[in-house]
Amino acid sequence: MVLRIRLARFGNKHQPFYNIVVAQARPSTHCAGHGRSGYYRESDETGVDAMKENQLNWTPLTRLSRSARGAKPLEVIGTYNPIPTARTDVPDANVAPRSYKDITLDKARAKYWLGVGAQASDPVWKLLNLARLVEPKPKTYNKA
Amino acid sequence: MRNRASNSLSKGKIRQSWSKYNLYNLQRFRSPATANRTFFQQKWTAKALSRAYHGEQVREGQWKRMFSKRIRSVVPMDTTDLAADDGSQVSAGRGSGLQKQGDKGRPSRIIPYTQMAFAPLERRLDVAIFRALFASSTRQARQFVIHGAVTVNGQKMRHPSYLLNPGDLFQVDPDRVMFATGAPKTKFERREGRQLKQKDGESEEAEGEAAEAKPKEDTEKKPEAEKEDSRDTLKALMAQAKTIMSTDKDVLPAKRKQELRGFQKAVRRVLSRSETSTVLTDNLESQFSELTLLLNAKRAEKKPQKQTKEKPGKEKSETAAVAEETEAASDKLSEAFQAAAEGEEVDASELTDEEFEVLKRALTQMRDNPIDHSKPYATPWRPRDYMSAFAFIPRYLEVNQNICAAVYLRHPVARPGSAEVPTPFGESISTPAYGWYLKRRW
Amino acid sequence: MAPRIQSRSVSTLLPYLTSSSTSKSSSIPSLCSSSQSSRQFSVSAAQQTKLRRQMFEWLATQGSGLKHHVPGETNYLKWADGTQNNRPFPNNPNFVSESILSEELRNEVYVRVIEKKKSPRAVSVELGIDMNRIAAVVRLVELERRQREKGKSLALPYARAVHEMVPTTPLAPAGERQTYHEPINDLPVHPATGAQIFYPVPESRSFTRVDAGRVFSGAPALEKDVSDKITHPSDLAENLIQRPGAIEWVGKGDNARQVLQPADVRIPHPQLVQLARDRAAHPEERRTVAYRHAERLERQEKAEKQRLQRSQQRRAMNEETVKPQGSRFSFRIKDAVVTKESVGKDGRAPWAPGRRYGVPTNDRKRGTVKIPTRVEI
Questions:
Q1: What's the pTM value of the predicted model, to 2 decimals?
Q2: pLDDT for the residue numbered A39
Q3: Does residue C244 share a domain with residue C201?
Q4: Based on the domain organization, do C153 and C206 belong to the same domain?
Q5: Which of A38, B238, B429, C324 has the smallest C-beta neighbourhood within 10 Å, fewest atoms?
């Protein structure tokens, strides 16, 4: 059972907007047959344990056993808007303004999830790096 | 939006437009008679008439959703009045205030609330552009927005129905504004423009060929072209001076006319002489500044010159030879001016201040309002006919015409005696129209 | 009528000569007559032709003056009594074409605010221009300068023409008093005052603006010892300028509202009332009055500046901009809060961070606004 911090796409065509979510990466094998009703209450799973600490134990069992791409995640910890916004309030006219992209992030939760072993996907890793939560990933290859 | 908004004379509806048909309709418009008509009928006509003007490009349902029965108003307060009492006098006595003998107070003017019935439409971007005098009709303003010539707070806005918020800055492409508000081209100007376009196309082709064949020639060609261009502007300057003379002919006495003629000659000489000098290869901007500098310099020199006429000019020419290139060029020009002014008419060759002003104006106009047949409007630019009859800028907008930008300061308000929403209709129409949109709520 | 600029004073600033337009006017009648003569061969409906003929007749006779303007004068339609004034619509006496700021006045505002570093509030009182307008003028002049630097094309002849057609407020020559452009102390009419209320008051009691505001907002009357302390409604202004949050609230839940304050507090320049009071109380001590006014103004500006700083700090606290090297973009990272309170019991609270799950978006429904409602600067 692996927890992943990844992006989940929202928005419309040509207007992407992402939630930064914590979700199950792989269906877990041992809780697949537990049926649909009831809530997952085992405490050996670190993620779920932490959830209980935070009183967020609304996650039904089905959520843990299945993690479809668009399904409701364990938690939404932020958003990322990849469409840059042009800046117009530049005091210096000579320097070309850098347009900006918006990120919202609950840093405390992100830190927590990373601490309990959640793995960030590459795009999220970059965002977390910008927020200075993780070191940049070492490049495995050099671009040609 | 169907295009049904015509300025037809038979219907006689008033539109948000500067058309002369609209002006005529506006002029002959009379409030409809109310006698023998039911209240519903009165409201219906009032609504129909005012909607033909206010937001005819907006669907009825859309407008109904925008309509608000709340009307903003302000009362200008006088600080000395406020300081004079704490309000207890107004409620003193039996509640209606103690009245002193002979003190009637200020005549209170009523606030024309119902004139504000269509205030929500003034928030629309297309209407605001029309109100800021950037377009000759709301439909045109709408087209500007859709065609991407309008920015709001620096970002392109393509929705004419965008509702401006207080503090929003909108800007229209100045060329479009000049086109919208300028006089249209005549047949001849249009033809000139076509020819210019053709020539451009040909020269581009030729240049392309030249670039393929000999890249060296291309580099040589450009300064030549520039030279010719700047020569043209100087020639145009000359022509301008001529027109000034011709317009002021009946005003000016004969002597001054002679002086002006002297100037004209001077310019001609400069033109013939400075072909080889570096001035002409410079760009237009520096040329212009040099010319204005010259004018200023001449004005300053005027008094000393009266005493020692010929000497300073010569001295200057000598020193100029040693000085830098550009300076030398400008001095050459000045020399030419002086020579022309002094050589031809020795005794009264100096121009008066007034004429200097006129010349300066001519120069500035030549720079800022040039003859350019590639533009879609008649050049030099002049306002289109009948524009002045519609030219007003409401107070809720602050407009900078130079850059064609405006700020929507606040929502329009009513105040005692006046309403800020520009509407051609009196209260006899706006009140029933407001009542129509209140539905059974009044 | 608002004072107007003479055309000569405009000329030095804006390059646009009107001589060309006047010289062209001679060609107009011939144009009209030619169109009339061509009508005789037209086969269109008779009535239409008549209307058109009448229109061109009017344009050639009474309307001919409207074709071109006289610089420095308005040129609107004539009223029924044959007079021309600054009301452009003959049927609407309530709409007046009001004056705009002249180029000089606009530059003066910019110089005073940016170069002399005066506060917009002070400049507003000096020149009689609304504070919002001052801010807008500064913004526009700044933009204009930037565009001039960049060498972008400007619509100078157009600007000149508009300033000739519309009444303008000129800048007073140095040493003279500036004529006010507009009333600067506009009191917005509060919706609560729309209702007529019958409120009996004993004749012996003085019922002031403060009490009236409380009645309109449905608040209980002030205690006697509190109301005795207020000698004049403008006494409240000083306190509320320092702490705008100190305004009392009445009602509960959705019905909660702030108590309506007297006009002395709600106008844009409340310090002017105190100045007028001071002047009336001490007519001969002009210097001390001016000194006290300056002090008050300074206090007020300080408080406003502090408030602005605090709000900026608060924004900066949970917002950070990162400019990574080698990237074309900068990233604005804002703090989000994910707790039980912020996301709700089922994690679907509308105010939770991120887009919502299991809830259809309403963005295509009828009646919802589908275009941007604001553009951030």
A1: 0.77
A2: 44
A3: yes
A4: no
A5: A38
